Amino acid sequence: MSNPATMPSGHAIKGIVMSIVAVLFFALGDVATKHLAMIYAAPLIIAARYSIGTLLILVLRGPRLGRQLWQTQRTGLVLLRALCLAAATLTMVLALKRMPVAETISIIYLSPFAVMLLAGPFLGEKVGLRAWIAAVFGFAGVLIIMRPGTGLDPVGVVLTLVNAALATTYNLLSRYLAKTETSVAMLFHTSLTGAVVFGAMLPFGLGGPMPTLPDWGVMLALGVLATGGHFLVTAAAREAP
Q1: Can you say whether the dihedral through the CA atoms of 102, 20, 35, 33 is positive or negative?
Q2: What tens digit of pLDDT does each residue of 84-106 get?
Q3: How many angstroms separate the CA atoms of 160 and 98, rounded?
Q4: What do you get for the CA distance between the two ends of the chain, in Å?
Q5: Measured between alpha carbons, how far is 104 from 98 in angstroms, rounded to an integer?
Q6: In 3D, which of 104, 107, 125 has the Cα closest to residue 179?
Q7: Which of 166, 207, 212, 225 lies 20 to 30 A from 110 at CA?
Q8: What is the pLDDT of residues 194-233, one digit of tens each?
Q9: Interval 156-170 mean pLDDT
Q10: What's the farthest any 2 CA atoms get from each other in the chain?
């Protein structure tokens, strides 16, 4: 029988459930991104994704929160976190143009293990033996996926590794900033930063076709899934290590 002292608390279970749902949202969003990335320019896809997210937050939370929607205490770190996610989104779209979804996501999911390994030195959180064993097996899995001779695009692999590094930084900052910032404010700054950065890139990245009506629907779904997923990740950081 499990020792009650070692069982997750109610808050920890809530954080775990949020993380699981977030991963589901991200998985669905990655499939949508793969579809769009094979047809349209990256700046268009990403600008639409962040613009939709910003509008969602403004409509759903703006009237209720007012100034609290964008007020932060550590604005510099909040913006750094937002830029990390914007850069990670770009590397994700570019990687999916070169590699299959399964291989891309498998390599990118090195990030959760890196977050766990760095949680001790950067966040002061204790990492137990089981977590270290999981990290070793996780990293071994990444090496197996990247083994020579598999035909993976080298540039695509580099892009996914850069994405994993950016995602690690983003998640560590999410956990650190959860002590002082609200989930909605961090999400708003993340969405707004992405919308501004990639909106500015649009004139230089519209060489391809314009989206069809069904693909505009896919972009809308991508914006909803990505925004919901990142809100859950940020909220989960408050509930569990």
Answers
A1: negative
A2: 999 999 999 999 888 888 788 77
A3: 11
A4: 23
A5: 9
A6: 125
A7: 225
A8: 999 999 988 876 677 888 999 999 999 999 999 999 889 8
A9: 92
A10: 62
Query: CA-to-CA distance for 118 and 125, rounded, in angstroms?
Result: 9
3-state SS record for the chain: CCCHHHCCCHHHHHHHHHHHHHHHHHHHHHHHHHHHHCCCCHHHHHHHHHHHHHHHHHHHHHHHHHHHHCCCCCHHHHHHHHHHHHHHHHHHHHHHHHCCHHHHHHHHCCHHHHHHHHHHHHHCCCCCHHHHHHHHHHHHHHHHHCCCCCCCCHHHHHHHHHHHHHHHHHHHHHHHHCCCCCHHHHHHHHHHHHHHHHHHHHHHCCCCCCCCHHHHHHHHHHHHHHHHHHHHHHHHHHHCC
> What is the number of other CB atoms lying within 10 angstroms of the CB of residue 191?
28
Q: What is the structure's pLDDT at 124?
A: 78
Output the pTM of the full model.
0.79
What local confidence, expressed as pLDDT, does residue 7 receive? 41
User: What's the chain's average pLDDT?
Assistant: 85
pLDDT of residue 51: 96
Q: Which amino acid is at 4?
A: P
pLDDT at residue number 112:
77
Q: Please give the single-letter amino acid code of residue 199.
A: G
Please give the Cα distance from 109 to 23 (Å, whole number): 10
Cα separation, 240 vs 171, in Å, equals 13
Distance between CA atoms of 142 and 146, rounded to whole angstroms?
6
